[in-house]
Design goal:
Its EC number is 2.1.1.74. With 452 residues, the protein is an alpha+beta fold. It has two domains: 4-157 and 322-451, FAD/NAD(P)-binding domain; 162-319, Elongation Factor Tu (Ef-tu), domain 3, CATH 2.40.30.260. Helix content is 33%, strand content 16%. The protein contains 13 helices and 17 strands. The chain has helices spanning 12-23, 65-75, 79-86, 99-112, 142-152, 189-192, 202-214, 235-240, 293-300, 325-328, 353-371, 384-395, 424-451; strands at 4-8, 27-31, 55-58, 88-89, 94-97, 116-119, 131-134, 158-163, 166-168, 178-179, 195-200, 268-274, 281-284, 311-313, 316-321, 334-335, 338-343. Strands 6-2-1-7-17-16 form a six-stranded mixed beta sheet. Strand 1 (4-8), helix 1 (12-23) and strand 2 form a beta-alpha-beta unit. The longest helix has 28 residues, at 424-451.
């Protein structure tokens, strides 16, 4: 029997799946169309290139579900977490990385692995034989997308994400802006000053909202619709929901003190987060947008401190592809109609780098174990991995299925714990303690099987 695992897509999920399967002794071929076939968002041909934010979000494994997912991936020897730690940037309590060295390191690790090879060609049809994982992510090619839609009977596979702009740090006016993480979060001075903050008065905020609403936006092609994931809404879409929406979202003025005017509380604050190790680039946090380029420059320069800003990259809009996993996949992430094909990553309906890589980790381990003759059971629902895979393969309502970040709302309740905000700290700690025990036990069994 052929013991080669083929993975279509070399993003976060595909890279992690390849690493896990290769370390279990399987021969792995990654099929990555870049750089021969370019996409709107990618700049390089590196594996695991970060196309949007450079953050893996919270690294708190006791009070945050995504931080717990970090912990589980590290426990499983995850490549993505290893390289993220290697190229970590100050970001308060978040895990942000220097994006280009990170992708270069992931690529180098995989191409140096004796069990891994990379085929730089586009695949546009579903394979009839062999062992496959489809991990093509939000920018699945048109040809493969059509093939998936034809197999699954899905009328539409896409919704739209938007990309935030990046500013050159030396063009930010620091006589107006200041460095501070919200609530001074972080153990070091670098962590506590990981963000640059631009304050707004009420009049400045109102003028900004007026310009944002009036700006020229990217139009969709005929027949396209925009169904945005709520966790990655363009700022103009948020503004259209109410003039105060941004002030209670990415522009909330809480946990910050302006040293230039310590006695004056800003009406709103725009935050920028470091985007590379040199500190020369900063991305505007939460400012994904579908404004046209000319409009972006004019509107963003209305932000105090950015009036003379130069942009290394302006925002943009891109398609995000996902399937209705609750109806199409079993608990091993196999396509029910073609069980030799698994899906992993964002295309399964998880949202975010970490969640995508986590589903790649599971798909790679499950595929390798099955090929080697020692199938794995799905991870326990009480773990972060288990909660997420349970959600996408059956826990979610199929009729209203939308991309989902990992969150404690996916976890089974623990009896006897106080509900509401007051009981949240104890409740979250109980969730993470239970999850770590469940994941450790499952992982030990998984590793024992792999060693047989």
């Amino acid at each position: 029997m052929d013991k080669t695992l083929h993975i279509i897509g070399g993003g976060m999920a595909g890279s992690e799946a390849a690493w896990q399967a290769a370390n279990m002794g399987l021969r792995v071929v990654i099929h990555e169309m870049r750089p021969k076939v370019a996409t709107f968002a990618h700049r390089t041909g590196h594996l695991a290139e970060m196309v949007c934010s450079n953050s893996f979000r919270s690294d708190d494994d006791e009070q945050n579900a995504v931080g717990l997912l970090h912990w589980e991936m590290r426990a499983a020897g995850g490549l993505i977490m290893e390289m993220a730690q290697k190229h970590r940037l100050p970001a308060g309590g978040a895990l942000a990385v220097d994006r280009d060295p990170f992708a270069e390191s992931v690529t180098a690790a995989l191409t140096a692995h004796p069990n891994v090879s990379v085929d730089y060609n586009e695949i546009t049809t579903l394979p009839d034989t062999g062992h496959w994982i489809i991990a093509t992510g939000p920018l699945t090619s048109e040809g493969l997308g059509r093939a998936i839609a034809a197999e699954t009977g899905t009328d539409a596979l896409a919704f739209f994400d938007a990309i935030a702009p990046i500013v050159y740090a030396d063009t930010i006016d620091m006589s107006i802006a200041w460095e501070q993480s919200r609530y001074d979060k972080g153990e070091t001075e670098a962590e506590q000053k990981a963000y640059i903050n631009c304050p707004m008065t009420k009049d400045q905020y109102e003028a900004f909202i007026d310009s944002l609403l009036a700006a020229d936006k990217t139009e969709f092609h005929e027949g396209e619709t925009a169904g945005y994931f709520d966790g990655c809404l363009p700022i103009e879409v948020m503004a259209e929901r109410g003039r105060e929406t941004l002030r209670f979202g990415p522009m909330k003025p809480v946990g910050l003190t302006n040293p230039h005017q310590p006695d004056k509380k800003p009406y709103a604050v725009v935050q920028l987060r470091r985007d590379n190790a040199l500190g020369t680039l900063y991305n505007i946090v939460g400012f994904q947008t579908k404004m046209k380029y000319g409009a972006q420059t004019a509107v963003f320069k209305m932000i105090p401190g950015l009036q003379d800003a130069s942009f290394a990259r302006l925002g943009g809009i891109h398609r995000n592809t996902f399937i209705n996993s609750p109806t199409l996949l079993d608990d091993q992430m196999r396509l029910r109609s073609r069980p030799h094909i698994r899906f992993a990553g964002q295309i399964t309906g998880v949202e975010g780098y970490v969640e995508s890589a986590a589903m790649g980790l599971l798909a790679g381990r499950m595929a390798a174990a099955e090929i080697l003759g020692h199938p794995l059971i799905s991870p326990p629902q009480d773990s972060a991995m288990g909660a997420l895979i349970h959600h996408i393969t059956g826990g979610a309502e199929a009729k209203t299925f939308q991309p989902m970040n990992v969150n404690f709302g996916l976890f089974r309740p623990i009896d006897g714990l106080k509900g509401g905000r007051r009981g949240r700290k104890d409740r979250y700690k109980a969730y993470t303690d239970r999850a770590k025990a469940a994941w450790t036990e499952w992982l030990a069994g998984s590793n024992a099987m792999a060693a047989q």
